[in-house]
Amino acid sequence: QVQVVESGGGLVQPGGSLRLSCAASRVIFPIATVGWYRQAPGKQREPVATLTSDGNTNYADSVKGRFTISRDNAKKTHYLQMNRLNPEDTAVYFCDLEFRNGVNYWGQGTQVTVSS
Prior knowledge:
The chain is mainly beta and 116 residues long. Strands 2, 4, 5, 6, 9, 10 and 11 form a 7-stranded mixed β-sheet that branches. A 4-stranded antiparallel β-sheet has the order 1-3-8-7, with no helix packed on it. The chain has no helices and 11 strands.
């Protein structure tokens, strides 16, 4: 069983930054796609950003220019750098790792709260 662990969430003031991290407990197959999603209270989970193994990225319109998805192959860790945060970014953020065998795993989520 693969466990996916997110970290880096917390409370930040509007305009601030956070960097979320995501790592798998073990990597049997190469990771094909990494996705960051978020779910605000009372709302459905929505995609935030994705990164494919060949480097293609995709962002939700609401975060373009503020968020950056990346990976560190040496550390086998994936990141979501979030800048210029605003209260609408408050949500639980989830990492989804899809391996090349077609199986994907979700993390438990990390809370991001943007408030003054």
